[in-house]
């Protein structure tokens, strides 16, 4: 151990010499040091303990240093005293430091952990995290309560427009026309089950023909106009399903269509590949037989009918079969999401269309001649084009498109005549409907050769038809009130007007969907908006904007016909069964109908805006399925916002017009 000699203080003087004072103090410190080293805090051996914690090995070098120190003690006791004092201070600092560290270690708590199974985390971190989550949940709950408690000021939804309001009512008419077992949700309180023996009671037929719709104010079921009605309804759903859904009527109209086409499937052997007959009519309207009870001679509630209802079948009925094929084919697109049912409709449509081509003839000229009284067909070529177009859209089979676009067929149908009358869509003439439908194909898919030439002709003819609706050209007369006279002033004009309004609004949407701002009428260009204006003015007239300020849709507006030519609506449901002639008193009564046939569009005014609300005059007051179907289609096309048509659903079964391009050649290699 080396000793550093420093000046020592003795009294008031610094001294480095050996003096009695210095010697005495030095000797006492020496003894204290020796006691600490050899007898104090643990004895040291050859291996001492380093104050830093490690072993301290005493070597010979240390012993030599000690000998030197002992010799120096005799020379300078003051130096030894100073060195000892420094060592005492150092030792105290070591001891104090050690005791402080031990205190800190004692005070330092053991860190705790939480075992979460898959993870071990600090208990402090775990508690902090849980607390934060609880606090966040409390804050979120408070925010939710505040948001819920604070009143919301949403912008009120605009009230439905007149077209939407009238649409709800127009669809209700079909509920009032149901035949067969009436569902509980039919919402027509004065109707009940009727026609429960149709077809079954006729021994010459023996087929179950329960169901379907009564055609008009009588109780006859005509397959020809009801098929057209179902086709028009299906067409409107395919184009405007979003609008029906927005109005809350999509399920309702689908139910109506299904009710109608399910009955049509009963009128022939829909499970067979080939057929030889179709039930064209149930019930009889010919009153030339005198007093024989039938559907025109008697005036009875449908629920009380007890007279025979014969079935009229046709064996050569190209027009009826092709129209029925169109109805089933268009409905198959409506129900495309119900695959099994849709395929059933397609199979039935294919059977019917094949039958229409095998046995040529008009249905009303054969065994179903009774139908000619009310629905005489003037030809079947237009039904070939119409039915062929729908068959192509339902199946994607190009053979149907080839038939529908065959120039000879188009010629026979009158596509090249250019007559205004050929452009009037009705239950008898479907050429205009077929041309608009095939113009849609050209606008959106452009199939090209070999169809382009005839499709361009149909497209041009469609443009001419739209031009004929415009008042600037005077193609058709108009009443002073503005109603277009598509049937040249003859009775029951409204059924033709609503069809034209539907086609005009629809074609306007076609043009807008194809980014066409308008079309040409000769050298003059007209924007698409004029077509919607035409459609609106005609429907507005029907809804009450006319010289008589009368709505021709029953139940719409404040003033509408109250004496509708309708058996079920005119006889009260009072528990009394009125006989065939007993119901005549209700037919001839001047009082309003006891039951309101909501949504029925009556036949309409005459050519001078005149109207007679008389029950016995069916030319003014009788509604019909075909008329109401056109009304529904026109109303939905004009209702709500101008959201346009659904471009794709119509072509869901149509394959790509052009084949996929071949794959690129393999990379060139040397």
TrEMBL record:
A single GO BP: cellulose catabolic process
GO molecular function per UniProt: cellulase activity
Pfam families (alphabetical): Glyco_hydro_9 (PF00759)
Active site feature: 565, 613, 622
Claim: Transmembrane is one of the keywords in the record: yes
Transmembrane intervals: 125-147
Domain Glycoside hydrolase family: 163-635
Catalytic activity as recorded in UniProt: Endohydrolysis of (1->4)-beta-D-glucosidic linkages in cellulose, lichenin and cereal beta-D-glucans
Keywords: Carbohydrate metabolism, Cellulose degradation, Glycosidase, Hydrolase, Membrane, Polysaccharide degradation, Transmembrane, Transmembrane helix
EC number: 3.2.1.4
Presence of keyword Cytoplasm: no
Top EC class, one word: hydrolase
Annotated family: Belongs to the glycosyl hydrolase 9 (cellulase E) family.
Name of this chain's protein: Endoglucanase
Originating species: Zingiber officinale (Ginger)
């Amino acid at each position: 151990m080396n000793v550093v000699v420093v000046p020592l203080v003795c009294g008031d003087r610094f001294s480095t010499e050996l003096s009695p004072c210095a010697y005495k103090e030095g000797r006492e410190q020496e003894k204290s040091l020796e006691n600490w080293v050899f007898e104090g805090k643990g004895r040291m051996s050859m291996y001492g303990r380093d104050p830093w914690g490690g072993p301290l090995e005493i070597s010979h070098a240390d012993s030599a240093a000690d000998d030197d120190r002992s010799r120096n003690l005799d020379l300078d006791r003051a130096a030894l005293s100073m060195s000892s004092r420094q060592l005492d201070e150092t030792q105290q600092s070591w001891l104090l430091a050690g005791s402080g560290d031990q205190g800190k270690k004692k005070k330092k708590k053991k860190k705790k952990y939480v075992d979460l199974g898959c993870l071990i985390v600090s208990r402090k971190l775990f508690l902090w995290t849980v607390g934060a989550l609880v606090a966040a949940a409390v804050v979120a709950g408070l925010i939710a309560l505040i948001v819920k408690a604070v009143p919301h000021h949403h912008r009120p939804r605009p009230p439905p427009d007149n077209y939407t309001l009238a649409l709800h009512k127009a669809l209700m008419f079909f509920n009032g026309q149901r035949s067969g077992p009436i569902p509980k949700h039919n919402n027509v309180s004065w109707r009940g089950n009727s026609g429960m023996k149709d077809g079954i009671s006729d021994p010459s037929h023996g087929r179950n023909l329960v169901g379907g719709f009564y055609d008009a104010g009588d109780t006859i079921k005509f397959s020809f106009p009801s098929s057209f009605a179902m086709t028009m309804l299906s067409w409107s759903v395919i184009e405007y399903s979003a609008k029906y859904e927005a109005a809350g009527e999509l399920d309702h109209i689908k139910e109506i269509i299904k009710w109608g086409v399910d009955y049509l499937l009963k009128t022939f052997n829909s499970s067979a590949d080939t057929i030889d007959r179709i039930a064209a009519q149930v019930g009889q309207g010919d009153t030339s037989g005198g007093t024989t009870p039938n559907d025109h001679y008697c005036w009875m509630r449908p629920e009380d009918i007890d007279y025979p209802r014969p079935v009229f079948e046709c064996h050569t009925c190209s027009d009826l079969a092709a129209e029925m094929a169109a109805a089933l084919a268009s409905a198959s697109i409506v129900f495309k999401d119900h695959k099994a049912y849709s395929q059933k409709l397609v199979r039935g449509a294919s059977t019917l269309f094949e039958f229409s081509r095998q046995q040529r003839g008009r249905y009303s000229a054969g065994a179903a001649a009774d139908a000619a009284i009310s629905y005489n067909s003037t030809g079947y070529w237009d039904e070939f084009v119409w039915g062929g177009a729908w068959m192509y859209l339902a199946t994607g089979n190009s053979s149907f498109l080839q038939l529908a676009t065959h120039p000879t067929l188009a010629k026979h149908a009158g596509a090249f005549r250019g007559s205004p009358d050929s452009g009037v869509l009705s239950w008898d003439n479907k050429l205009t409907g077929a041309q608009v439908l095939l113009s849609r194909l050209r606008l959106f898919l452009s199939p090209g050769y070999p169809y382009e030439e005839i499709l361009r002709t149909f497209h041009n003819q469609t443009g001419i038809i739209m031009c004929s609706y415009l008042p600037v050209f005077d193609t058709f007369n108009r009443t002073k009130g503005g109603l277009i006279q598509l049937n040249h002033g003859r009775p029951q004009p409204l059924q033709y007007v609503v069809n034209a309004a539907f086609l005009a609004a629809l074609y306007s949407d076609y043009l807008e969907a194809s980014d066409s701002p308008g079309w040409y009428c000769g050298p003059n260009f007209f924007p698409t908006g004029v077509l919607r204006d035409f459609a609106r003015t005609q429907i507005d007239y029907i809804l009450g904007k006319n010289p008589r300020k009368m709505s021709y849709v029953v139940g719409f507006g404040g003033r509408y016909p109250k004496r509708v030519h309708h058996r079920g609506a005119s006889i009260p449901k009072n528990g009394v069964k009125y006989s065939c002639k007993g119901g005549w008193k209700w037919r001839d009564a001047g009082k309003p109908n006891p039951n309101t046939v909501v949504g029925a569009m009556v036949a309409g005014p005459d050519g001078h805006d005149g109207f007679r609300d008389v029950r016995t005059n069916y030319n003014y007051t009788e509604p019909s399925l075909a008329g109401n179907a056109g009304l529904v289609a026109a109303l939905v096309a004009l209702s709500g916002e101008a959201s346009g048509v659904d471009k794709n659903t119509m072509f869901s079964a149509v394959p790509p017009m052009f084949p996929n391009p071949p794959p690129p050649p393999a990379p060139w290699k040397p």
